[in-house]
Amino acid sequence: MSEGIRNRIAFKSAINKDIMNIAWPVLIELVLGSVFGMIDMMMLGNIADTGYAAAAVASVGVVNQPLFLGLSVVQALNVGGTAIIARYFGAGKKDQMENVTKHVLIISMTLALPLAILAFIYAREIMAFMGAEQATIDIGISYFRIICVSYLFQSFNFGVTGSLRGIGETKVPMNINIRVNFMNVIGNAILIYGLLGFPELRIAGAAISTALANFTASIFMVRYLMSGKSDLRFSFKNKFNFSKRTLKNLITIGLPSAIEQLVMRTGIILFVQVVSSLGTVVFAAHQIGMSILSLSFVIGQAFGISASALVGKALGAKKSDDAEKYAHNSSMMGSASGIVVGMVMFLFAEILVGLYSNDPAIIENASSALRVAAVIQPFQANQLIVAGSLRGAGDTRFPLVSTFIGVLGIRVILANIFIQVFGFGLIGAWLAIAVDQFVRWILIRLRFRSGKWKTISLA
User: How far apart are CA 253 and CA 64, in angstroms?
Assistant: First the structure.
């Protein structure tokens, strides 16, 4: 074997090692987060009163949509923060990273507080707008209002985690989130079912446990940032220096991402309205299917976060060829994982759904939906990872375009046609999801191959 071939193999091995060093803690964190979320729904879905249980599962699904919309506003800033911090880290400008983090946290909380207050006040109206039936609203209103408080701590945690990911530091957020999620599951069991002498709070207990877990995570995040153990130095004692350039870069990168998330969540809300018209039992099946599907998203998200940090770092170091290799290898590794996940979902759909509910109608509907989603898994993972690479380069406008076309232009319209016109039921909704994912995969791949993302400047 020639020395050139050995060098290429060694370089590829180093690239893959860098990808996995960042991706595996994120993957574990996201997988366990999804699993814990699934356990939450299982606990609610297995409350003895089956009528209450179905409405509780449905109400969590309804509340999650405005919650995710609120979190997407914060997450958009984090996309900008991660990209900018990764560039500074790659360029060796570590002294500027703390101030970027403070910009992200201050702006995030400034946006999150009024959103939480408005959602708390108009919780009932928001749930009604989402298409929830009256029984679902009556059961879920307390859950929604407690989650509004939890949202503030979750927004703060997202800001810290996004900044740490910019320097490739993913193990600490993983450790913190694993601990608080275990705490959340235990708290759920105690408060939902009234164990150990506590009152049986049912769905409100799930919300209280979630809020306490997010509050605890915020404390752990602050303690770590101020410990001095990270390359990302942070202290509340250091003066905050407002920077127009930092704000401009956050807006330039974050605004398209914010609009993308707004488009995504608006599309999903419209999509949920269509699906909720199929009735509480079918909608509960949809939510269980989405809970399981969320586990499949984490592969694309984990490798996408890794690609984002490494692409940004390589571009900061003026190594665009390395950036392309990081993006390509990440997408291939994610796609291979997506094939495995798709096979598991297709072959074991009934078993997975049966963990949530023993209702035959729910099992039948959710299992059929999962098999539709299983086919699209490799494309879904690849699309998420390549989009993450583009965001790491600061190219957030094209993911916005692809999301607008895919979610609003395809998913919502096709769901209406398949359900309202052809009467396909829940399968029709999930066919619309599959077509949306495939079209977005094509668009994102075309953008990446153009190479235009390599020329974006954050100066």
Answer: 26
Which residue is listed with tokens 């060694």?
A: 10
Two structure tokens written together for 72:
């997407």
Alpha helices (H) along 393-425: 397-403, 413-416
Residue showing tokens 């990302």: 232
Q: Which two tokens stand for residue 134?
A: 């009256």
Question: Could you read off the pLDDT of 422-453 as tens digits, one per residue?
Answer: 999 999 999 999 999 999 999 999 999 998 88
CA 385 to chain centroid, in Å, comes to: 13
Task: Find where tokens 């298409």 sit.
Answer: 131
Q: Which residues of 20-39 are buried (b: 16+ CB within 10 A; e: fewer)?
A: bebbbbbbbbbebbbbbbbb
pLDDT in tens, 284-306: 899 889 888 877 888 888 899 89
Q: Which helix (H) or strand (E) holds 32?
A: helix 3-45
Reading the block at residue 37, the tokens are: 């979320």
Structural Rg of the chain based on CA atoms: 22
Question: What is the pTM assigned to this prediction?
Answer: 0.77
Cα gap 30→33, rounded to integer Å: 5
State the SS3 of 418-447.
HHHHCCCCHHHHHHHHHHHHHHHHHHHHHH
